[in-house]
Design a protein that fits this description.
Glutaredoxin; Rossmann fold; Ubiquitin-like (UB roll); 5-stranded mixed β-sheet; 15% strand
Length: 509
């Protein structure tokens, strides 16, 4: 039986993967060719989607991007035997974009059926949980500390320290909460991981529960991810059926339950305390800290809150050991970070590399420059609250400290590229307007400062007292940065200031 793989993730389906899979099955039946179509996850090479792969003795052969109209010709060329065809790309693993990565989080993405536990365990899955079940809670937390894992949601706080706080806080009920409210522009790593390898997240959350003695977990998923919602729920059902979740995990007598809860489209609920309010059924408002959620979190109980990539990485750390993970990266930024190339970029997709690679390498060697063919002008890294970086800063290493020193941030690893046709004054205005729309409204610097910021930028655009209004804009940015309750208002000045500093010609300078 010939095995043909057609991705089932959101991006591939948006580009016609469902129809391609149906036509491949129909064409094979018509020609009396025995095949099975496996709906795998995407490899994250989005410019090649739908990417169809065929299992051969030499390995998987790739063809793409495949449209419905290409299928008869592929069959005529014998692609199901791995033959050369018009859309042939060679062995999938030899595609340079993929081959030159260092994949930890996405090691199984595109290789397995996301809903097959057998595929997952055959590729190293649940080895980490098996190991963790034989360890004491403190030993589990110590392993996370030793790995150097830091939160991948943007703040980069050491995961092991957060876990230690929860473990050390006595309470009869503790929680693990996964922040899957991936709302930053240009980010899609969380979604792709949940759709391509959901058991990795489930396993990581289960290990976290064992480590801090929590028995209940929640995945707070953004409502705009219906495919991920479907895949996660199906994967959870299979994990329960196979005793990887529930009251007797793998016959150990240990207990962990897990469920998905949907958000309601509010960007602010990506902030951890606002997320907790939403999870409790309240309006998502930022909480004053202290107390920290690790001590007084969900329903007033000690709570670990990490994002998808952080918790998913835990399964790899326990499978391969802390030493394996901390040998990757540089300085205090250890391991890998899946960068997400988006915007005006020729080759958009997931690029997972060890920390330390330069932004220029990512943009040129992987991204291939702009899709428009024009020169790159600015790159925003870290979502809508990240700084706009000019060409002079593209040689900055991809690590948290280097970006912080440049008054920028890596955040969740989203990279949005702009060519030389962009108006950076408009981008600065967008940053302020985004804050106006998405602010929870609890604190004045964020709520009012962003509104005034839009007004001031409009005056600069109209040529009204430009120099005076630039001074006023800087004063507003300082008030927002140092007076806001959370990062929503505190980081909005980053894109605004960087646009003014690096692209003064767009502000009439």
């Amino acid at each position: 039986m010939i095995t043909i793989y057609v991705p089932r993730d959101t991006t591939a389906c948006a580009l016609g993967a469902d129809a391609v899979a149906e036509v491949i099955s129909a064409e094979a039946a018509q020609r009396d060719i025995g095949i099975q179509v496996v709906r795998n996850g995407s490899r994250g090479l989005f410019w090649l989607e739908p990417l169809v792969e065929v299992e051969t003795e030499a390995g998987r052969m790739a063809y793409g991007p495949v449209n419905v109209g290409d299928v008869p010709g592929l069959f005529d060329a014998g692609f199901y035997k791995g033959n050369e065809a018009e859309l042939a790309l060679g062995l999938t693993e030899e595609i340079a974009y993929l081959k030159n990565q260092q994949r930890v989080n996405f090691a199984r993405a595109g290789i397995t059926d996301p809903l097959s536990i057998d595929h997952y365990t055959a590729n190293g899955g649940y080895a980490g949980l098996t190991r963790a079940l034989a360890m004491e809670p403190q030993a589990i937390v110590d392993e996370v500390k030793a790995s150097g894992l830091r939160g991948r949601g943007g703040a980069a706080f050491p995961a092991g320290i957060k876990w230690q706080t929860v473990l050390d806080t006595p309470n009869e009920q503790k929680y693990i909460v996964c922040n899957a409210d991936e709302g930053d522009s240009g980010t899609f790593a969380d979604r792709l991981l949940m759709e391509a390898d959901p058991f990795q997240l489930i396993e990581g959350m289960t290990i976290a529960g064992l480590g801090v003695e929590a028995t209940q977990g929640y995945i707070y998923l953004r409502s705009e991810y219906p495919q991920a919602h479907e895949v996660l729920n199906a994967a959870l059902a299979r994990a329960y059926d196979a005793d990887y979740l529930g009251s007797n995990i793998m016959g150990s007598g240990k207990h962990f339950d897990l469920e998905v809860r949907l958000g309601a489209g509010a960007y602010i609920c990506g902030e951890e305390t606002s997320l907790l309010d939403s999870l409790e059924g309240k309006r998502g408002l930022v909480r004053v800290k202290p107390p920290l959620p690790a001590i007084v979190g969900l329903f007033g109980r000690p709570t670990v809150i990490n994002n998808v990539l952080t918790l998913a990485t835990v399964s790899a750390i326990f499978e391969k050991g802390a030493d394996f993970y901390k040998e990757l990266g540089t300085g205090r930024s250890l391991g890998t970070l899946p960068m997400q190339l988006a915007g005006n970029i020729k080759y958009g997709g997931i690029v997972e590399l060890a920390f330390g690679t330069t932004l220029r390498t990512l943009l040129e060697d992987f991204g291939g420059g702009t899709a428009s063919g024009r020169a790159m002008k600015a790159v925003q890294v870290g979502g809508p609250l990240g700084a706009y970086l000019p060409a002079s800063q593209w040689d900055i290493p991809l690590d948290y400290e280097a970006f912080a020193a440049a008054r920028a941030m890596l955040g969740h690893g989203g990279v949005v590229v702009f060519d030389d046709s962009v108006d950076m004054l408009e981008q600065a205005r967008f940053a302020m307007e985004f804050c106006v729309v998405e602010s929870c409204g609890k604190c004045t610097p964020c709520r009012v400062g962003s509104t005034r910021g839009v007004e001031v930028i409009d005056k600069i655009r109209a040529g009204e007292h430009r120099d005076d209004n630039l001074i006023l804009l800087e004063d507003l940015c300082a008030t927002m940065e140092y007076g806001s309750l959370c990062a929503m208002g505190g980081l909005t000045p980053f894109p605004v200031r960087s646009a003014v500093q690096h692209f003064p010609e767009d502000f009439g300078g």
